[in-house]
Specification:
The complex is a heterodimer of chains A (294) and B (438). By secondary structure, chain A is mainly alpha-helical. In chain A, 73% of the residues lie in helices and 3% in strands. Chain B is 48% helix and 13% strand. The longest helix of chain B is centred in the first third of the chain and has 19 residues. Classes of the chains: A mainly alpha (294), B alpha+beta (438).
Chain lengths: 294, 438
C-alpha cells in the first residue's frame, strides 16, 4: 500500500461523520450567524410586491439582544430556577444512588425502576400531568393543602418540581452505574479499617464519584439554561409566566409569534455563548480537582 | 439531564434554520416543481391548508365535478401556529396554493408578500359579502387578498337555567352586566357571572370593536396605529374594575378549569362568537340544553353593535402558477350555495356570504332549545363592526397576553396593558421601517 492510498483511507471512513456534521450542525449554525446579521426593511405601507427587502445590519441584532431587559430578566429567573433544580435534583440523585448501592437496602431493583421511570415520560406530558395537579379547582392536592402552586413566586418552585421529578432518575442512574463499577474490595478495606457505612459513603464513594457528578452537573446546567417545555406548557394555565420567562422562550416568541427570525437568531447566539461560558467555566473550575490535572 | 428537551430545542433551531435556508432559492422554486403538470394535459393539482373540520369531504365534491382541477386538503393545527407555518413555508419557497387565512393574520401574509392579489378574479363575487367583511380582505386598499369564508360575530352565551335560579335578567347593557355580576356573587360566592381571559386577545379585540375601536387604519401611504384609543381603554377599564372588585373571575378560557366551570355551573356567561356552540358541545357536554344566546350587552341602551372574534378567508399563494384555478376553487367554496351548505353542515362554520347567513335553518344541536339561533346570529351579524388589521398583529396579540397577564398578577390598571400593546405595536413597526402617521 503506497503512501497516498494510506492517506485517503481515513478520510473515506470520516466522510459520513463529516457530511452529517456539515449538513446538520455547521450549515445551520452558519445560517443562524448569517440571519443574525440581517433584518427586513419595509418601505411605506409594506404591502404588495417589493415593499419589503432584507438588509445587512451587522451586529445590530446581537447588540439589541444584549441590551434587551426582557432577556436578562429571563436569565435571572432561569438562574434562580436552575440553581434550585441543580441542587435538589443532583442532591436527590446522589442520595438515591448511594442508598441503592448500600448493602442494606431492600427492593433495590423496584426502587431503581420507580425512580427512573419519570424520565421516560416526555416533558410535555409530565408538565401537563403536574399542571392538572396545580390547577386550583381540579387539584386533589389543593383539597388538602391551601397553596397556590401557580402564584407569582410559587410557580418557579412548581416548575422546578416537574424538572426534578423528571430528571432525578436519569442522573441517579448515571451515578449508580459509576458506583457499581467501583471495585468492591475498596469498601472491604475501609470496613476492615473500621469505617461505618456512612463514612464509606462520604469518604470513599463520593470522592470516587466526582467525575460522574461533574458530568451530570454539566448536562444539567446545559439543560436548565435551555428550559422551555415546562414554562411553555404551563403558560396557558396561569398568568404568572410571560412569553419571555426563559431565554429560549424569547427565541421561540421572536421566531414564531412575532415573526422576527433575525432577532431570534441573534438571541440564539447570545444564549449559545452564555451556555458555553457557564459549562466550560464550571469544567475549568473543577477540572483540577476531578481529573487530577494541572 | 433530559435529552428530549435538548432535542426539542435543537429541532426548533433546525426548523428555523432549515426552513429559512431554502429562502435563498430562486423565487419560482415551486413553479419549477409544478410546471410539468401546468404545461402537460394532466389535471392541475392544488394543495389547500385548512383546519376546518371535514373539509376533505367538501373538497371531494369539488374534485368529482372538476376532474381538471384536483384539490388536496392538508389539515392544519389552526390558530397562530398555522399562520407561522404558512409564513415559514412561503419564505422557504414551497407554500400551498390555497390557505385558510384568519382575518387578523391576513395583513402579515400580505406584508410578507405571501398571498396574491385577486382583484380581477373576485370582482363578480364582491357583492356577496357585506362591506365590513370585504374590508377585512382588502384592508381598505385597492387590492383583494382573499375571499371571506366565515365570520365570528360576537354574542352573549349564558346559562338560562341558572339565570332563572339566581333571578337575573339577561343584561342588555354592560352596566346591567356589571350589576348582574355583583348580584351573582352575593347570592352564591362560589359562582361568577363571567371571567376575563388574559390569554385570548381575539375575544378582547371583538369587544373593543363593539365599542368602536379602530386599532389600525391606512391613510395614503402610511399606517395609523391607535390600539389605545378611547373605546379600547373604556372596555379595558370596565373589565379591570370588575376583576379588581372581585365580581368577575380572571380564569383564562380553554383551560381544564374553565371547562369544569362551564360544566358545573360556576360560570354563567361567555361573551363569545357564533362558533361557540362547537366549543361548548365538546368542552361542556354535560350542560347541553342549558345554555342560551342573546346579543352582546351594549354600551348605550338601544344600540345593536357587535364585534368579531375569529373568522377567516381563503387566500391564494403569491407564487403559485395556478392562480386562476386556485381562485376558481376558492370562489366556489365560499359563494356556491351547495358548497356553503356543506361548509355549514360538515365544517360547522358561520358563512361569510350574506345570502347564506339568512338561509340557515335548524339551530345547532347543542342549542336545540333555541330555535331562533341563526336568526339571532344574522341580526347580530348585521350590526357587527370590525377594523382593518395591521401587518404585525402577532406582536400586538403577544403584548396583550403579557400585558394583561401582568395586570391580573400585579393588580395594575388594564388601560396600562392597552398602552403596552400600543407601544409594542408601534415600536415593532418603526423597527421594520413601516411608514407611520403621527
Amino acid at each position: 500500500m503506497n503512501r497516498s492510498q494510506r492517506g485517503a483511507w481515513p478520510y473515506l471512513f470520516l466522510t459520513p461523520a463529516i457530511v452529517l456534521f456539515t449538513l446538520f450542525l455547521a450549515v445551520p449554525i452558519g445560517y443562524t450567524l448569517y440571519l443574525a446579521t440581517r433584518r427586513t426593511r419595509v418601505s411605506g405601507l409594506g404591502l404588495g410586491r417589493g415593499a419589503r427587502r432584507e438588509v445587512f445590519v451587522g451586529f445590530d441584532n446581537v447588540a439589541a439582544a444584549l441590551a434587551d431587559g426582557d432577556l436578562w430578566a429571563g436569565w435571572l429567573r432561569v438562574l434562580g430556577y436552575g440553581t434550585l433544580v441543580l441542587v435538589v435534583m443532583l442532591g436527590l440523585a446522589l442520595l438515591f444512588a448511594l442508598l441503592l448501592d448500600s448493602t442494606r437496602v431492600r427492593l433495590a431493583r423496584f426502587s431503581r425502576i420507580a425512580i427512573f421511570l419519570p424520565y421516560a415520560v416526555p416533558g410535555v406530558a409530565a408538565t401537563l400531568l403536574w399542571g392538572f395537579l396545580y390547577l386550583p379547582s381540579l387539584s386533589p392536592i389543593r383539597d388538602v393543602l391551601d397553596i397556590d402552586f401557580l402564584g407569582a413566586t410559587t410557580v418557579t418552585y412548581s416548575m422546578a418540581n416537574v424538572a426534578v421529578w423528571g430528571g432525578t432518575g436519569f442522573n441517579m442512574l448515571v451515578l449508580y452505574t459509576t458506583l457499581r463499577a467501583i471495585p468492591r474490595d475498596l469498601y472491604e478495606a475501609a470496613r476492615l479499617d473500621g469505617a461505618s457505612e456512612l463514612q464509606i459513603a462520604v469518604r470513599v464513594k463520593i470522592p470516587l464519584l466526582t467525575p460522574a457528578i461533574i458530568l451530570t452537573t454539566v448536562f444539567s446546567i446545559i439543560a436548565t439554561i435551555q428550559v422551555f417545555t415546562e414554562p411553555t406548557t404551563l403558560r396557558p394555565l396561569t398568568n404568572t409566566i410571560s412569553s419571555t420567562w426563559s431565554p429560549l422562550m424569547k427565541v421561540y416568541r421572536d421566531a414564531f409569534t412575532t415573526g422576527d427570525l433575525y432577532s431570534a437568531a441573534a438571541t440564539s447566539i447570545v444564549i449559545a455563548a452564555i451556555s458555553l461560558v457557564l459549562s466550560f467555566g464550571f469544567l475549568r473550575i473543577v477540572r483540577d480537582r476531578a481529573f487530577g490535572e494541572g | 439531564m433530559r435529552a428530549n428537551r435538548l432535542g426539542a430545542a435543537l429541532a426548533v433551531v433546525l426548523t428555523v434554520t432549515l426552513a429559512s435556508c431554502a429562502s435563498g432559492e430562486p423565487a419560482d422554486g415551486t413553479g419549477a416543481a409544478q410546471s410539468p403538470t401546468a404545461a402537460g394535459s394532466g389535471p392541475v393539482k392544488l394543495t389547500y391548508w385548512t383546519w376546518a373540520p371535514n373539509m376533505d369531504k367538501i373538497v371531494a365534491v369539488w374534485n368529482q365535478a372538476h376532474p381538471d382541477i384536483q384539490v388536496t386538503v392538508s389539515k392544519q393545527a389552526g390558530g397562530d401556529d398555522a399562520a407561522a407555518k404558512f409564513l415559514t413555508a412561503a419564505k422557504a419557497g414551497n407554500p400551498p396554493e390555497l390557505v385558510q387565512a384568519e382575518y387578523q393574520h391576513l395583513p402579515s401574509f400580505i406584508a410578507a408578500d405571501a398571498v396574491a392579489d385577486l382583484k380581477a378574479e373576485t370582482a363578480p363575487v364582491k357583492g356577496e359579502f357585506t362591506e365590513g367583511l370585504w374590508g377585512l380582505v382588502t384592508l381598505g386598499t385597492n387590492a383583494v387578498y382573499g375571499i371571506p369564508q366565515d365570520s365570528g360575530p360576537m354574542m352573549l352565551f349564558y346559562r338560562e337555567d341558572l339565570f332563572d335560579k339566581y333571578g337575573i335578567e339577561v343584561p342588555k347593557t354592560w352596566q346591567e352586566y356589571a350589576e348582574a355580576a355583583r348580584t351573582v356573587r352575593k347570592k352564591d360566592p362560589k359562582v361568577f357571572l363571567g371571567t376575563f381571559s388574559s390569554k385570548d386577545p381575539g375575544a378582547f379585540t371583538g369587544l373593543a370593536q363593539q365599542a368602536g375601536a379602530q386599532w389600525w387604519s391606512i391613510s395614503g401611504e402610511s399606517w395609523k396605529v391607535n390600539v389605545a384609543d378611547e373605546p379600547t381603554r373604556k372596555v379595558a377599564d370596565y373589565w379591570g374594575a370588575l376583576v379588581k372588585e372581585g365580581v368577575i373571575d380572571d380564569m383564562p378560557y380553554f383551560t381544564p378549569e374553565w371547562n369544569k366551570a362551564l360544566n358545573d355551573g360556576t360560570l354563567l356567561t361567555w361573551p363569545s362568537a357564533v362558533w361557540a356552540p362547537g366549543v361548548l358541545s365538546s368542552n361542556a357536554p354535560k350542560a347541553k340544553g342549558k345554555w342560551a344566546v342573546a346579543p352582546l350587552p351594549q354600551w348605550n341602551a338601544g344600540e345593536s353593535h357587535s364585534g368579531f372574534w375569529g373568522g377567516s378567508s381563503t387566500a391564494v399563494s403569491a407564487k403559485t402558477p395556478h392562480k386562476a384555478a386556485a381562485v376558481q376553487f376558492a370562489t366556489w367554496l365560499n359563494t356556491d350555495p351547495q358548497a356553503i351548505g356543506l361548509l355549514v353542515k360538515e365544517a360547522a362554520i358561520y358563512p361569510a356570504a350574506t345570502k347564506a347567513q339568512s338561509s340557515l335553518g335548524q339551530a345547532p344541536d347543542y342549542f336545540a332549545n333555541q330555535a331562533d339561533f341563526w336568526q339571532q346570529a344574522a341580526a347580530v351579524s348585521a350590526g357587527a363592526r370590525g377594523f382593518t388589521f395591521g401587518p404585525n398583529v402577532g406582536v400586538t396579540y403577544n403584548a396583550f397576553k403579557d400585558g394583561f397577564d401582568q395586570a391580573l398578577r400585579d393588580g395594575t390598571p388594564f388601560s396600562q396593558a392597552v398602552q403596552g400593546m400600543q407601544d409594542a405595536t408601534v415600536a415593532d413597526m418603526r423597527k421594520s421601517g413601516f411608514q407611520l402617521a403621527s
